Amino acid sequence: MTAADVIPQLTAKVQAAAHPDAAPCHCGATTTLAHRPDTTVLRHAETVAKAHAPGTDPAALALRLATAVHLPDVFLAPLAATPATVLGTRPVTLWPYGRPVDPDAPDAAPWEAAATLLARLHRTPPLPATPPMRGPAKAAHAMARLRQALAASPVHPAAPPVLRAWSALPAWARAEAPMPGTRTLCHGDLHLGQLVRHPAPDGPWRLIDVDDLGVGAPAWDLARPASWYACGLLAPEDWTRFLTAYRAAGGPAVPEDGDPWPTLDVPARALTVQTAARYLAKALAADRGLDEVEQSLIDACARMAPE
After folding, report:
1. In this structure, are 290 and 167 located in the same domain?
2. Domain total for the chain?
3. How many CA atoms lie within 13 A of 230 on its CB side?
4. Which of 23, 55, 237, 267 is deepest in the core (most CB within 10 A)?
5. Peptide linkage before 54 cis (omega within 30 of 0)
């Protein structure tokens, strides 16, 4: 199924889910919330439909959905506990609409809520047969996309620092070996875009996106804000808010006090490389230069693995 086929078919499914009684629709157009090769998300009225990546394992996805149903104080619960249908090789899930974080109001970013939800998640015993957390696999996928982009543009000054920093990571952070240490239930791809208020617009914050949910190293879920802080992209006071709230809620990923970096160092470096690789691949595909944020991540990779 091509990308052009996904939107009309997913539109029909989200409209049918929003109006199960087949009543005439007077609630306006269907809105595209995301449309990428690996994800398409549409909203119609108060219902959201998501077409997951081609090749997604429906059984593993169903286990992840079951976890979301099991943790309504952590996750936005799906409208059905199993994938609703399949578009070719793409499972579809249905969700209630939640209001996302406002990207234009950084001072109102819910760092404490994100940290508290993570701590609750990390303290919850996983359900039987919960699959592994896909964080390292997602990082490896970003590197594979970068190498594919470099096949067409092999000479780029930003590429060597990213490749060196990736090679310097331990095998587990590159999805080449099992994750070490204590394992817990993890989100796998935590960032502020993974939080919504439900019921909209002022309900409690909940996590969304179960695609990478599973059992793994809980420090991975703290790694993106840790990476942003280390790269100068997250203000120190916001990092302190996040870390303090996580500890106050009993999160097990870091010690109760003292220096968290011995635990966070490898995951934070892995997320830095993953993000740098993703940005560089996009810049190569668009045949454009790097912006200030993108260059800061490349510079961080160069510091992590100097020549």
Report:
1. yes
2. 2
3. 25
4. 267
5. no
